[in-house]
Amino acid sequence: MAKVYGDIVIDIEKCKGCELCVAACPQDSLEQSREVNSKGYLYIVKVQDNCTGCINCALVCPDGAITVYREVAGGKKKEVAKVKNVNKDMTITVDE
Ligand code: SF4
Ligand code: SF4
Which pTM was predicted? Predict the structure, then answer.
């Protein structure tokens, strides 16, 4: 099976440093930063470029801080998972 290349974007201002995403990542791609965001939380950073785009991190994040992308034909990236409106009517977008 061909390797799937993924990537994530973390909205560090939404992150509360709970580390649920760190525990959920099968690739050990994520770690807590030593820097704090404007609210004083130690936010999460990507520490390895080995993401497969499995979407686990986006699904477990209670604050919708992570957007997951996967590489598609032509080397372009496509958004595959994002959680929105976590404090209102939750919308989970997953494109498998
Ligand atoms: S999408 Fe999967 S592999 Fe990539 S950072 Fe999130 S949990 Fe880890
Ligand atoms: S699960 Fe979300 S809020 Fe928690 S550390 Fe990860 S990105 Fe931050």
Answer: 0.86
Q: Indicate the burial class of 61 (C-beta count within 10 angstroms; 0-12, 13-18, 19 or more).
A: buried
Fold observed for domain 6-94: Alpha-Beta Plaits (3.30.70)
- Ligand nearest to the backbone CA of 56: 1
Q: In ligand 1, which atom is closest to the CA atom of 7?
A: 4
Distance 8 CA to ligand 1 centre (A): 7
The predicted structure's pLDDT at residue 61: 94
Question: Which pLDDT value is given to residue 96?
Answer: 62
Give exposure, 8-40, as e/b (b: 16+ Cβ within 10 Å). bebebebbbbbebbbebbebebbebbeeebeee
Token couple for 87: 């404090």
